[in-house]
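Fig. S4 source data, part A: sequence.
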Amino acid sequence: MIAQIAVGAIVCFLGYAYVAIRPPPPKTCGSPGGPPLTSPRVKLDDGRHLAYKEKGVGKEEAKHKIIVCHGFDDSKDFNLPVSQELINEFGIYILSFDRAGYGESDPNPKRSVKSDAFDIQELADKLHLGSKFYLVGISMGAYPVYGCLKYIPHRLSGAAFVVPFVNFWWKCFPRKLSKEALGTLALSDQWTFRVARYAPWLVNWWMTQKWFTSLSIMHGKLDIFAPSDLEIIRQLSASPKEGQEKVRQQGVHECLHRDLIVGFGRWGFDPTDIVNPFANNEGCVHIWQGNEDNFIPKNLSRYLSEKLPWIQYHEVLDAGHFLIYNQTNCEAIFKSLLLCNNT
């Protein structure tokens, strides 16, 4: 009798574990029972679709074409505070898009740093942006930019990393430095990143279990934000962002979980393996880091800029993780990118 009970308990546990670990199928936009399609999309060569949004001057008359990669738990519908005067002065066309699995872009079960880079290239080609374009990567949206610098550098006019994601397991970081940087984060965040790194098959269970906190930013913990971030949150909450309800509509695993798995996974290269794509000074690469950012340890961004002297490093005083939502900072980021050849 005891053996039968033990066997039954083991079977029940294994059944629970299988259900908990295995992510649910995505609710693909436009599929039967899936979310409706409300945004323009391009069809990629592998059959997937990417949803996009255009802003600024028309691309036909634009002098500068900028593709912006959104961050974690965000979408193409973010609203950067770039004035119409600046857009008109520089002739700026801005293209934002839902990265794979986010918003209305189809999930990519084979998503990687490399696939995200080629998604960007194909999106640019489908929309006829020309041979070159600028890139801005915000937070987690930085890793597709690293991918572009690695795999399609010839397509770039310049790039800006804004409070850029860092992988604590990049081999280019001294072990002591990365360990200390990881230790500055909330304990729950440290464990989440370790799970994504060492047990990606467990991420779905880890992120959906209710026993303890997984990722602090997703549990409304305001104490992790810098004072400047809290002020920006207050300002943004006064006018709710369009499309926010669509960010996770295809399933959290296809957007948030895959972001963590890809970002903290093994890329096959480190940032320090990337060769300067603008050896002849025909473009620039920038890192913009808030000195009060509690999400991205500034010491790691500093270290990367020291090891890659062709990257221009900007550390913004009294700024946190949301520095790009301050108009002065946002316009400085765009100007530095576009005026590179004139400085």
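Fig. S4 source data, part B ends here. The longest strand covers residues 49-56.
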